[in-house]
What we know:
- By secondary structure, this protein is mostly helical.
- It has two domains: 13-113, DNA polymerase, domain 1; 118-151, no CATH class.
- The protein has seven helices and two strands; from the N terminus they run ααααββααα.
- It has helices spanning 13-19, 25-41, 50-62, 67-86, 121-125, 134-138, 143-151, and strands at 109-110, 113-114.
- The protein has a two-stranded antiparallel ribbon.
- β1 (109-110) and β2 form a beta hairpin.
- α2 (25-41) packs across α4.
- The radius of gyration is 23 Å and the shape is elongated.
Amino acid sequence: xxxxxxxxxxxxxxxxxASIAYLAAKTKDQxxxxxxxxxxxxxxxxxxxxxxxxxxxxxxGNKGASPSSIKRMVSFWRSYWRYLVxxxxxxxxxxxxxxxxxxxxxxxxRPDGPRLRxxxxxxxxxxxxxxxxxxxxxxxxxxxxxxxxxELVKYPST
Length: 158
């Protein structure tokens, strides 16, 4: 990096884009979008600092971006940065994304308030479910359909 000069953060974007040509189209599109957010946020590579990145990540989270979306974005930003290091545009010892941590929200809460947990058919019959989802276990039946089916169940009297 030349001293006193500023390097536009988008200067090597086209070359980086060519370097990810082997990826699936959907992945490339998402990477371009997320790295586009980075270069829109920071005009120059010199402006991308660990402190400013952490501040921005917190801001994204406060605006409602999910932890998984933020993790994906940071991963793609790191990809762009690794490319810049590989072509000697930024020094190897400058890693503005190295200290970024994404705090995960508990699954039952959201920034806009609590999220009610939907009962699943496995809950109704009392099965353990460490790795199943509603759609896989119940065929995606709606709660109304499940409720109607339960109305038809007859239990022996004790």
